[in-house]
Amino acid sequence: MAAILAFAGSNSSESINYKLVKYTVSQAKEHSVQLLNLANFPFPMYSEDYEKENGFSNSLVEFKEDIQKADGVLISVNEHNGNSSAYFKNVLDWLSRLERNCFEDKKVFLMATSPGKRGAIGALNIVENSLPRMGAEVVVTFSLPEFHVNFDVKKGITNVELAKQHQDALNLFLSKLA
């Protein structure tokens, strides 16, 4: 049984990426899953001055420790104007200041979704390229386009082809944790 940390890179109380993460971990019943809602984490905007004056918050230190205790990390990133959200970029900035390789030796399943047809692929690509610089091994990625068309909170991914792609990606990720 692997320990998996799962979260969405969003601080929205209605995050569709969090809904996708929640659904995904429901498909990994044989593993120990810690599901975090980052909307509950009040990370201030990073600046060197703020760091010098206030140091690192307990929430940040605990979050980093959660990452390091996990065998694998499942993340779904949201997209704003073709990039990951300022909130998630800020979280990564804080983590990198606390410990540059905070994802060292962590297997990552990276996902993204959006209401649009591109499925937040821009944000997905940016984060996929940045996480290895923090020590992560991105095992697999998955993009769910048109969230409101292809996802139902009770049923999960409703598009058969996308559901299969998602399950295959999840299975690959889980196989790397064994």
Q: How would you describe what is shown here?
A:
With 178 residues, the protein is α/β, with parallel strands linked by helices. It is 42% helix and 22% strand. The chain contains seven helices and nine strands. It has helices spanning 16-26, 48-54, 58-69, 86-98, 121-130, 147-150, 160-177; strands spanning 3-8, 32-36, 72-77, 79-80, 83-84, 107-113, 137-144, 151-152, 156-157. The protein has a five-stranded parallel sheet with strand order 2-1-3-6-7, sandwiched between helices. A two-stranded antiparallel ribbon has the order 4-5. The model has no long low-confidence stretch (mean pLDDT 96).
The geometry reads as: globular
What is the share of helical residues? 40-55%
Radius of gyration: 16 Å
Counting helices, strands and paired strands, the structural category is alpha/beta
Cross-sheet strand order for the largest sheet: 2-1-3-6-7
Mean pLDDT: 96
Low-pLDDT runs: none
Q: How many individual β-strands? A: 9
Tell me the distance between the termini: 8 Å
What is the beta-strand fraction? 15-25%
How do the helices and strands follow one another from N- to C-terminus? EHEHHEEEHEHEHEEH
Q: Major sheet, described briefly? A: 5 strands, parallel
Number of helix segments? 7
From the structure above, extract its key features.
alpha/beta, two-stranded antiparallel sheet, 178 residues, 5-stranded parallel β-sheet, 42% helix, single chain
